[in-house]
Amino acid sequence: MEQINIKLDDTKHVVAFASLGSVNGDINYNGDIPSDFRYNCRAYQLIDNKLVKDPNYKPPEDKLISDSSKTTTTDNSKSQIEQLTMQLAQTQAMVANLTQQIANQQGGSK
Questions:
Q1: What is the pTM of this model?
Q2: What's the domain range around 42?
Q3: Apex CA 46: angle with CA 41 and CA 51, to 5°?
Q4: Of 55, 70, 98, which one is at a domain's C-terminal end?
Q5: Which residues pair with 72 in a beta bridge?
Q6: C-alpha distance from residue 98 to each of 67, 91, 93 (Å)
Q7: CA gap 91, 21 in Å, rounded
Q8: What is the spatial distance between Cα 102 and Cα 7, in angstroms, rounded to a whole number?
Q9: Distance CA 6, CA 96 (A)
Q10: In this structure, are residues 60 and 40 in contact, taking their beta carbons and an 8 Å threshold?
Q11: pLDDT by residue (tens digit) across 46-83?
């Protein structure tokens, strides 16, 4: 069993998760995490407090759209990048906080 924070849509599908920190509007989940959840969290729903793969889930098609000099990603990819960026910022803040706590403890024990 593992503890993570998950954000659900109206149909109880997972739209985001955080192993460290939290996501705006998330809930705490403490249970079994399927092996492919981290790579495909949107395919899962929370049913009876369990993460269950939706058999009707179809992944969105991520296509690159070429515009002579630019290549842009779909909104889905942008959302995933934003989630990863947020998780990275949360992790960096946590590391900075822990580093400060260690420095304070070492300074206080001299």
A1: 0.54
A2: 1-55
A3: 60
A4: 55
A5: 65
A6: 45, 10, 9
A7: 7
A8: 32
A9: 24
A10: no
A11: 999 999 999 998 877 766 555 544 455 566 777 788 78
Q: Which of 55, 72, 100 is the last residue of a domain?
A: 55
Sign of dihedral through CA atoms 36, 37, 38, 41? positive
29 contacts: CB under 8 Å, gap ≥ 6 = 3, 4, 5, 6, 46, 49, 51
Considering only residues 85 and 70, tell me which one the structure prediction assigns the higher pLDDT: 85
Answer yes or no: do 51 and 73 share one domain: no
- The b-or-e profile of 43-58 (16+ CB within 10 A means b, else e) is bbbbeeeebeeeeeee
Domain match, 43 and 73 both: no
- Tell me if 38 sits within 8 A of 108, measured CB to CB: no
